[in-house]
């Protein structure tokens, strides 16, 4: 009797179609071309080939970027959080790439605890709101003694990377990661 039941179950399992979708039904997942790395060398100190670079996150980790607010939203701010990556704290530069093409750098990673002033692109983490930003400088110019001069310097620095910044924005748009 046991043999008959075993034979029947085997025959039944072979005749039933599988539950998996056919390969043509599976949506194609394309990897993002955006790659963000940390570097152990400050801008201008070492060439890219001399610097030790580590991938911190990719475009696949990014849910969207809002160019108006400069907010960079990650798919999972807690487990896929670049802040949890110790390389961010120990590195002077965060470099942005599309595939192997270097675009630009954030000169520093900065959180709300920083008391320094930066007038170039910064990767900013707002601790109280658990939000990330790509800002033209830190802190907001409204708290500076000479806000007009600081903003002029920030605008000039952003103009220097305007072409590369536009490539970054266009890639975000292509990948459906752009929000305005």
Q: Which descriptors apply to this entry?
A:
six-stranded mixed beta sheet; 180 residues; alpha+beta; globular; 4 helices
Short précis:
The protein has 180 residues and is of the alpha+beta class. The chain has helices spanning 2-15, 86-89, 147-160, 162-174, and strands at 34-39, 53-58, 62-66, 71-74, 93-98, 101-106, 108-111, 122-126, 131-135, 178-179.
Could you explain how this protein is built, in words?
- Helix content is 25%, strand content 27%.
- The protein has helices at 2-15, 86-89, 147-160, 162-174; strands spanning 34-39, 53-58, 62-66, 71-74, 93-98, 101-106, 108-111, 122-126, 131-135, 178-179.
- The protein is of the alpha+beta class.
Itemize the secondary structure elements and their pairings.
Elements: H1 2-15, E1 34-39, E2 53-58, E3 62-66, E4 71-74, H2 86-89, E5 93-98, E6 101-106, E7 108-111, E8 122-126, E9 131-135, H3 147-160, H4 162-174, E10 178-179
Parallel strand pairs: 3-10, 7-8
Antiparallel strand pairs: 1-2, 1-5, 3-4, 4-9, 5-6, 8-9
């Amino acid at each position: 009797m046991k043999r008959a039941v075993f034979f029947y179950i085997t025959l039944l399992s072979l005749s039933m179609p599988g539950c998996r979708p056919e390969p043509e039904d599976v949506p194609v997942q394309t990897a993002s071309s955006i790659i963000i790395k940390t570097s152990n060398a400050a801008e201008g100190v070492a060439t890219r080939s001399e610097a030790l670079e580590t991938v911190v996150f990719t475009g696949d980790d990014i849910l969207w970027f809002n160019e108006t607010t400069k907010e960079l939203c990650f798919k999972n701010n807690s487990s896929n959080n670049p802040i949890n990556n110790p390389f961010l704290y120990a590195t002077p530069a965060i470099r942005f790439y599309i595939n192997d093409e270097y675009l630009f750098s954030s000169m520093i990673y900065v959180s709300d605890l920083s008391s320094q002033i930066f007038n170039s692109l910064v990767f900013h983490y707002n601790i109280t709101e658990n939000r990330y930003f790509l800002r033209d400088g830190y802190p907001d110019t409204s708290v500076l003694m000479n806000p007009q001069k600081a903003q002029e310097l920030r605008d000039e620095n952003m103009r220097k990377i305007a072409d590369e910044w536009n490539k970054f924005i266009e890639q975000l748009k292509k990948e459906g990661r752009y929000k305005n």
